[in-house]
Amino acid sequence: MAATIALPETELRAAIKEAVAAGFERQLALTQELTRQASIRGHEKSAQDVMEGALRERGYAVDRWQLDPASILSHPGASPIDVSYAEASNVVGTLEPKGGAIGRSLLINGHVDVVPTGPLDMWAAPPFEPTIKDGWLEGRGAGDMKAGLVAALAAIDALGHAGYRPASRLHFASVVEEESTGNGALACHQRGYQGEAALIPEPTGEALVRANLGVVWFTVDVKGVPAHVHESRSGVNAIKAMRRVFRALDDIEVLWNASKRLDPWFRDHPHPISINVGKIEGGDWASSVPSWCRLHVRAGFYPSVAPEDALTEIGRAIEEAFRRDPALAKNPPTISCNGFHTRGYILQPGSEAETMLREVHETLNGEKLSAITFPAYLDARVMALYDKVPTLVYGPKARAIHGFDEAVDLASLERVTEAMALFIAGWCGLEPKG
Amino acid sequence: MAATIALPETELRAAIKEAVAAGFERQLALTQELTRQASIRGHEKSAQDVMEGALRERGYAVDRWQLDPASILSHPGASPIDVSYAEASNVVGTLEPKGGAIGRSLLINGHVDVVPTGPLDMWAAPPFEPTIKDGWLEGRGAGDMKAGLVAALAAIDALGHAGYRPASRLHFASVVEEESTGNGALACHQRGYQGEAALIPEPTGEALVRANLGVVWFTVDVKGVPAHVHESRSGVNAIKAMRRVFRALDDIEVLWNASKRLDPWFRDHPHPISINVGKIEGGDWASSVPSWCRLHVRAGFYPSVAPEDALTEIGRAIEEAFRRDPALAKNPPTISCNGFHTRGYILQPGSEAETMLREVHETLNGEKLSAITFPAYLDARVMALYDKVPTLVYGPKARAIHGFDEAVDLASLERVTEAMALFIAGWCGLEPKG
């Protein structure tokens, strides 16, 4: 029998809506508990403890495993690893249908890792003490993407509250390393977790991601020639030499943005390519001409470009900038990838999964689902490129992602929870909870 | 009876020369032992232990005391203190004449603190394992100024070997904090150690310092507005904003160098003013628009300028640079002095002490002593400005001060040792060792 994909009937939709509303307080409590975990890179353990507990409590079959660098690095989609994975684990909860599968299987994916807070005094409230204000839940990671991850769990809870459970296999993956390498989602893929479609509730503002960019992280190391300041003109100041790198990166950003017309997905984006100078460190002493400076950069590039080609082009531009300066030409900078090394992906239009989500969104909101291009990394590339399945990135409205006072819009969050419940019901089919 | 100042007679000069040569191996051993102590700021204790031991062994009356920030900061010549002085001590050894003083008293001053090494792989040999190669002693601090400090001690030893000792009070001060604040020499002044002249064997290449610059250390803190990189144009990148600070500092450097014709001492120096960007740190994460960046800068300025006026002018230039950019104008950078806050000084020509040293130098080398202007900080400003005595900065030839493979020229070192012995003999007078 062919799998049936259909939006739930009116009556069931009403029951699901009610169940989402009834469970929203519990959903928020779990979102806040998860946001209280300061799960910056290397410190994701307690957040994964929360997710593991939530999955076990709900009766999922749980698989938790530590990320294995050697195994990850054997995959062409792996990014270099320059930290310990001793505390880095993924958690996957699985629901198997009791009857025969009547819908399609689904992989839900979300990440618990968050980016650093920056200076605490720039936050209105402590970033890991989530607070609700004017209909927003504030906290580092609330938007990106703990609220979405918990919302997906709450969506399945709501189906249960209405008396049902998915009628096809559903994997619920809570992963790490999304903000630095994408190796967490990749490790899930390597362990065999996939579905006939994937759903990732990143904060997209209730839009669907059509395409996203490839991303590389790299460091640029410039060596100087130190000297006492009174002979500073005989030295080469590694910090000031970095200005040439800034200029080369600016030039590349302009050039790549100018070529957006060649990309079918990003040609209409106002500014698809960002090359971000994110961190700098250099020199040891105010009174010495600094002998070293290291820049940490993240660059995006079109889905048609391989990460190694993007890095090569950037490297060439930086070397060329140094070659033009006789003092610097002797010490060309060293460029090395130390994180993201990932290709972009495209959600090919017309899949059944997308059609299902469009129907859900339009039924709920009375307006068409808009597709957006997303100029940053998404774990969706793993399912799109390696599982080769339709991967729907769709989630709530958030603000100040990676910034101060990051927050998620609670009304949007509830709508998205309902939409995910309807999508899961429609895509996986339902069987009585029994 | 008026004090007698006179170059020793020919026979005694020959005896001193011989004594310096005979003691040179022992002098080198102590220089190497001192250079083995990695006396970067905050870690000067073992170096001062070596100096204290050497002074006690030679029968000096030794005073060693911990630097007291409160007492130092009460002096107008103090620099701000942003580190602990728990391990920071000065050592002063004193020789009192046994007979009545027949010459003039002298303060010999040198510092044991050294600047950081920078990356170790840039050194031919480990920086704190001094090695002799092709007539040079290599090691961090060998040039600046452990060789000079030990040479002064060896000069007095040589007088002893020839059967004499200074016939006036001599203080031998081994100080800290010369490379960051000048508070070590200032603490000596506050404790009452001074002479009718001062001698500082910094590595001047056997020239005499006529004038030196004032110095300030300051930090520039720039705040950004962080954002996810995909919205990077809505943020303000604190690292890239620092480029405006670089430009403002470059402009100030050009401007101040252009006005060198107004300074009687530095008008002939090719490039008296250096504003050194020595250290930078900023941002937390490659994929976030960085919200902070801090620059550590050292600026020199003419002896006629007060440090507070130099800082004010720099601050104004930086603020003006930010005011011109609407995105940056909202977050003007913060500038604060975190080290050197010192005025320059001038050795007024014509003092008896200078005349004595000129006579010594010309007798020894058969050529005139050249006077140089020194565009960096020297502890000499303490004796010149606050003791108001002729302060002679005169020492051996060194290379790569503050750089890699720093070294001191051993032939020059021996010449300078002899010159100092003759100067001490001439200035302080001699009495039999007895």
Shape, per Cα inertia axes of chain A: elongated
Strand ordering within the main sheet of chain A: 1-2-7-3-8-16
The quaternary state of the protein chains shown equals homodimer
Helix percent band of chain A: 25-40%
Low-pLDDT windows of residues of chain A: none
Q: How many individual β-strands of chain A?
A: 19
CATH class of the largest domain in chain A: Alpha Beta
Q: Can you say what the CATH homologous superfamily of the largest domain in chain A is? A: Zn peptidases
**Series of secondary-structure elements of chain A, N-terminal to C-terminal:** HHEHEEEEHEEHEEEHEEHHEEHEHEEEHE
Structural class of chain A: alpha+beta
* Number of self-contained structural domains of chain A: 2
- Quickly count the helices of chain A: 11
Which fold name corresponds to the CATH topology of the largest domain in chain A? Aminopeptidase
CA distance, first residue to last residue of chain A: 23 Å
Mean pLDDT of chain A: 94
Instruction: Assess the beta-strand content of chain A as a share of residues.
Output: 15-25%
CA radius of gyration of chain A: 23 Å
Largest sheet of chain A: 6 strands, mixed
Most extensive contact: A-B, 61 and 62 residues
